[in-house]
Write a structure and sequence with these properties.
Blueprint lengths: L11 H6 E12 L38 H13 L3 E2 L2 E2 L1 E5 L9 E5 L5 E10 L2 E14 L3 E5 L7 E5 L6 E7 L6 H18 L11 E11 L9 E6 L2 H20 L7 E6 L4 E7 L9 E2 L6 E2 L2 H9 L5 H12 L3 H7 L3 H12 L4 H18 L11 H12 L5 H14 L3 H8 L7 H14 L1 H8 L6 H11 L6 H12 L1
Parallel strand pairs: 12-13
Antiparallel strand pairs: 1-10, 1-11, 2-6, 3-16, 4-5, 4-15, 6-7, 7-10, 8-9, 11-12, 13-14
């Protein structure tokens, strides 16, 4: 069960009897300014049907012209996913009827895709697992149907064709995932790689990243796959996990009752918390694929492929490993700090201007990210610049201010944009309490709390925090914590 799921109605023993087999088909909208076969804008949110032309509407007498930038982005994504980019690939017509597909066919790739045979690695349950990628191919998107059902007698469907011809990269995984958690981890990792490479903005709310899941179950230990069902158009990570959990239990329930699974396409009904049957699963021959006669085959030379490879950024997995080895931070810290390129760049900037890696990572996670989250800001909009955070970290690490004072200073920095040095000087926070003053405060606290002294001497180590807290309160957080600990232990012993 994933962390998003409601508790299963099935017993753990029954769930353990079966094994799920999951593969994902992910459609990522490529981040080009114009469409794949014409010059229309791909801008999201414009007036319906305003970004269309005779080519993307499929009007008679028009011819598609392939956008070179689309192929380049496809190569970029394929290389980042360890795929083999083929020298020759070809577009095909995928024939089917739907109101938002004006040509009556979709230009896609079929028997000769742009790339195949890749993989990515996911982190799940403390282990690394490699998930195979069958193929990555290019295609055009269809339009969008907008349903207006305010009254049953007045249901209407409108069609917005702005999305027709928007370039897509379809990434098909091998059926290597065995749980909804693994599928969630795969989609999360894939999204992060696509964002790092800049090939897609992966905005699921705008439809830039969409996922179809193929799922089946088999008796644990069996080699043959069960009958698979496709769940279409899962447009959030949460829906993916919930839909897979529902389908796995539905399959098990059918098989346990003596029934058989029908190969079909289903849709996730979030309101009802279930999947609903959409249609029987079509075969490839149902689409009557044939080579697109209006487009030449695509040729990717080794020089072009190598040129694209040379522009790839450091990818998340490699960046995490470098952060651990170079900056001495934990694997967990590295995972958090490489979540986005902007966050990773901020961290490296803090370290570059002098802050120790481990301290910088701790301050970013405990203070900066928390306050950014609370204020609904991205790292790019942080009111505390990397150099300003590095200055604060250096003040704490050098002992000029305590960590407790540092947190107060950071809060003021975040709200005001002032530097740590300015705040410390203005509020007189720089001078730490002397050891003599700490000892005076400690003796006073010990004298006033004989019961706690007795508890400590009888072996109750936990009560020591009481004394530390009282001394820090009296010294207004400006005492050196190590000095407080050392002096208290000396006096109590």
């Amino acid at each position: 069960m994933t962390k998003f799921a409601t508790e299963s109605a099935m017993s753990p023993e029954l769930l353990a009897k079966y094994e799920a087999v999951i593969g994902l088909e992910v459609h990522a909208q490529l981040l080009t300014k114009t469409k794949i076969f014409c010059g229309c804008s791909t801008r999201f949110g414009d007036q319906p049907n305003s970004n269309t032309c005779p080519v993307c509407l499929g009007l008679p007498g028009t011819l598609p012209v392939l956008n070179r930038r689309v192929v380049e982005m496809g190569i970029r994504a394929a290389l980042a996913l360890n795929c083999t980019v083929h020298e020759h690939s070809r577009f095909a017509r995928k024939n089917y009827f739907y109101p938002d597909l004006p040509k009556g066919y979709q230009i896609s790739q079929y028997e000769l895709p742009l790339a195949s045979g890749g993989w990515l690695e996911i982190e799940h349950g403390g282990k690394t697992k490699r998930i195979g990628i069958t193929r990555l191919h290019l295609e055009e998107d269809a339009g969008k149907s907008l349903h207006d059902g305010l009254a049953q007698s007045a249901d209407k469907t409108y069609v917005d064709l702005n999305r027709c011809g928007t370039p897509l990269s379809e990434i098909v995984s091998e059926p290597d995932m065995r749980s909804p958690d693994e599928a969630y981890a795969y989609l999360t990792t894939l999204r992060q790689i696509l964002l790092y490479t800049g090939v897609s903005d992966c905005n699921m709310e705008e439809g830039s990243l969409r996922c179809d899941a193929n799922v089946s179950v088999r008796l644990r230990g069996a080699r043959e796959f069960g009958t698979k069902v496709e769940v279409k158009n899962l447009n959030s990570f949460r829906y993916l996990a919930k839909a897979l959990e529902y389908e796995i239990e539905r399959h098990i329930g059918v098989l346990e009752s003596g029934g058989s699974i029908s190969q079909e396409t289903r849709l996730w009904n979030q309101h009802a918390g279930r999947t609903d049957s959409m249609r029987s699963k079509e075969k490839a021959h149902d689409y009557r694929y044939f080579p697109e006669p209006d487009l030449l085959p695509v040729h990717v030379s080794s020089a072009w492929r190598d040129e694209v490879r040379s522009t790839l950024p450091e990818l998340p997995f490699a960046k995490r490993a470098r952060f651990v080895s170079s900056f001495g931070i934990t694997a967990y810290n590295a995972e958090v700090l490489t979540d986005t390129q902007a966050l990773a760049a901020y961290f490296e900037s803090v370290v570059k201007v002098g802050a120790p890696g481990k301290a910088a990572a701790n301050w970013m996670q405990t203070e900066l990210l928390r306050r950014l989250h609370d204020s609904a800001k991205e790292i790019a909009a942080s009111p505390v610049a990397p150099a300003a955070l590095a200055e604060l970290v250096s003040l704490v690490e050098s002992g000029k201010i305590t960590a407790a004072v540092g947190k107060k200073v950071f809060a003021t920095m975040f709200e005001s944009g002032r530097s740590a040095a300015q705040i410390v000087a203005a509020e007189g926070l720089g001078a730490q309490v002397s050891d003599a003053a700490i000892e005076e405060a400690a003796r006073d606290i010990i004298a006033k709390n004989p019961d706690n002294v007795a508890k400590f001497k009888s072996g109750n180590e936990g009560v020591f925090k009481f004394f530390v807290g009282r001394v820090m309160r009296i010294t207004k957080g400006q005492a050196n914590p190590q000095s407080v600990n050392d002096i208290l232990r000396k006096l109590l012993s």
